[in-house]
Amino acid sequence: MTQTAAPVQPPVRVLVVEDDEGIAHPLRRGLTRCGYLVETVATGRAALSARPADVVLLDLGLPDMDGLEVCRRLREHSDAAVIVVTARDGEVDRVVALDDGADDYLVKPFGLEELKARIRAVLRRVRPTGPRYVVGVLSVDPRARQIWVRGGEISLTPKEFDILECLIAEPGRAISRHSLITRVWDENWYGPTRVLDVHIAALRRKLAIDGLIETLYGHGFRLVPSAAVAAASGD
User: Fold this and answer.
1) Which strands form 152-153's sheet, in the order they lie side by side?
2) What is the rounded CA–CA span in Å between residue 50 and residue 137?
């Protein structure tokens, strides 16, 4: 059971479409060591029937069909990032591949570090959501500004979300009222601080997790991880 709110990112699934085992094996080994979940296939048909991936490393010279056709057909049903990995280094080949839906084009031979950089770059474009904070039944995606409780998405106002993000980024730590007002509203906020209590009350009501946001009288608030964990245990 998750008891902290360290940002977590789902593992990246990489599909290597390469019929040369002398190339496929080192790619699988190197990327696996870097934390990627790697599957390798040797034909275009196998690539089209493989489980969904985040990134496809696609050779163009496949034994059963042209890699460009594979790319076009992948684009019909998949939003995976496609990096063409091939010995074809002509400008026309690059242009056609990119026009057919490839996100990047890498010419063999290449180094693992360059490949990893290319993967990171395409993921930033096609998978823009960032890491989530997860505590028990509570999951928060700061970049997408989405929140889930028990798997269901919860709608928050912008200020409510900002307050929750401040609290979940430092679970268990006391956050002063002044700090929350400064970070959520403005460092020069001159309005009533009671506005914070109103938003906290609304946040508690919407999250519906008993004891999740604790009031520290005379100081501020803190998010209690054990409350979200206990809620998960009680489901």
Assistant:
1) 7-8, 132-135, 138-141, 146-149, 152-153
2) 32
Encoded amino acid at 84, one letter? V
pLDDT of residue 182: 83
Instruction: Give the predicted TM-score (pTM) of the model.
Output: 0.54
Q: Quick check: 138 pLDDT over 70? A: yes
Q: What is the pLDDT of residues 94-104, one digit of tens each?
A: 888 888 888 88
CA 110, 113, 117, 123 torsion: positive or negative? positive
With 0-12 CB in 10 A as exposed, 13-18 as middle and 19+ as buried, what is 184? buried
